[in-house]
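Field: COMPLEX_INPUT
Field: COMPONENT_COUNT = two
Field: RESIDUE_TOTAL = 693
Field: MODE = joint
Values follow.
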Amino acid sequence: MKELLLIILPLVAAAFAAAWPGERLRPWLLPATGLVHAVLSIWLLLDPPPFAPSDWLAFDPLARAVLPAVSLLFLVCSAYAVPYLRARTERPNRVFVASLLAVLGLLSAGHQARHLGVLWIATEAVTLAAVPLLHFNGTARAFEATWKYLLVGGTGIALSLLGSFCLGYASLRGGGAGDLTFSALSAQGAALSRPWMLAAWVLLLVGYGTKMGLAPMHTWKPDAYGEAPGIVGALLAGGVTTVAFTALLRVRAVVSAGGAGAVADRTLLAIGLFSMLVAALFLLGTRDFKRMLAYSSVEHMGILSIGAALGGAGAWAALFHVWANSLTKGALFLSAGNMRRAAGGSTMDAVRGLSTLTPHSAAIFVAGMLAVTACPPFGPFFSELRVVRAAFSGGQGTAATVFLGCLMFAFFGLTRVVFGIVDGRPRAAAVATARRFPENAGVVLPPLVLLGLSLWLGVHTPAVLREAWSAAVSQLFPGP
Amino acid sequence: MSATVNLLVGLVMGLNLLALGSGRLPALIRTVSLQGMALGLMPLLIETDFNWLVAAVAVGTVAGKGFLIPHLLRRAMRAANIDREVEPFIGFVPSLLLGAGGTIAAVAITGELPLLPEHAGSLLVAGAMASVLTGFTLLIGRAKAVAQVCGYLILENGIYLFGLLLIRATPLLVEAGILLDVTVGVFVIGIIVDRIQRAFDSLDTRKLTVLRE
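Field: COMPLEX_OUTPUT
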């Protein structure tokens, strides 16, 4: 029952937010719901509920390994949302708050979906619910970003439906009775019709890969992350991408049970390396610090995809990286939002001297940048180290070398932009805008908390999480 | 029964080509709306014994794809007061050749695919592939947002055609999902189009070029 509350509660809160008349009190619904959601999901993490393989929605080991990270991220973001929306009273927040809560509920549904159709419906609904969040700022640039997000994302999601149909047809052709839960599909094993299954894998990889932002389907990402408020960027990069990744993990398990695991792993590895390469090249070229975060997200999605391709040890590392990346990216996006507001711009040409304009946010941003480029002792360092180790022990030395090379170029690209905007003397006009958006505890503490969580994940990974990731890996890779 | 379905799929394929050759937006919208109505009839023909769910799917599809969405598209077009030319990136003749070649290839490939015995003589898979290809050609090859939305609709229509293969076996959930999401998705796209024109006073996606590297 608690696991269904994770879905229902935010959706009810969303309806409530849409009906609530007052602009000033409405944002408080966010932390209230976020808190209950986080408590519930951590409770479920510590005390996993029983579930039947035929359930359509269940808090199974994979959901348990990932969903609490999203829940924590949302809680911190929602605490940030209250002071953020207070600073942005010129924009009505009814739709924004309701959509944000709806996204949380649908993300919970997507993570817990054990049925091909339910998974697709949840992902599609998240895509649509995120649209109002992207054009919250209402500028022409925000509309452009939203249009691209909807067209590229909509096409991707359409292809993943086609892929779901193909997988369904593979099951029918193999004598299945139309049961599209992942357990039933895996149980069919080699009976699944191979051509249809492979077609399904390609379409689902492209479809859910578009949602994740794997290159070359990442084109919506820089625009969307660049124009959306920081809090939305944090949730897209840490929550929506995660649901697409778990979708791919579930489908990969079916394809692997169907006897094409090697094909799936090769494609995941190739697309992951390509994403890292594209991201590294664009990171060397971009001059906008919010778009930079988008390319960094593409890079980390590549890392997840590579991890998923490297068997049990790699998948364990990938689940670790989901946590590390979500929390660290959250810190980066929230502090970037503070900096963007104060500076009134987001390119290296327009912005300088953030270390004097917004000293706290700039410090968090620099530390977050080091964390996300895998400097010890933050979480991403340990998760990426495990990915590299899994690659070498799996005989993928070339892939590991390319991986490390891309990380290095990404480091160059990120440091170039970050120090370009943090150093120097701020412009006179920016000093005036910064006075309008002063840093206060409400907007500085949330990213700091996320950074702290990332650090904690690195130096002292909780045993319960290690155990949850192992359980998820044994669900995804059932032993022979 | 399957002969009638095949006839309708043939009609859908013909409408694909008509859409690729349309030089005016109202004609394109009319083509898409006709295609939607043809699709709406199919579940009734495929499901031999009448049941309420299938009837609801059919009515919903005809109403949504055939009337509601085309109406929204026309409204967006009128509100924006744009000229009616489609303005292709990929010319009409290359588009048509691509579409025709794709349709022939789709029919040829279908013969090679491992289908269930009851789908052996059906054109559904070929129609689905041809429509998906047509949808992509329009999405990539047209400048106006309204024309791109029409391309997206044809792409969705192709996926719907493929879904019809599963209509008997899978729970109603999948078909309910298709309807809801296709309709809502395009609905939202319609609203976005509405917004875009307010911000840009034009529905020309070529002007959406501020955000780039």
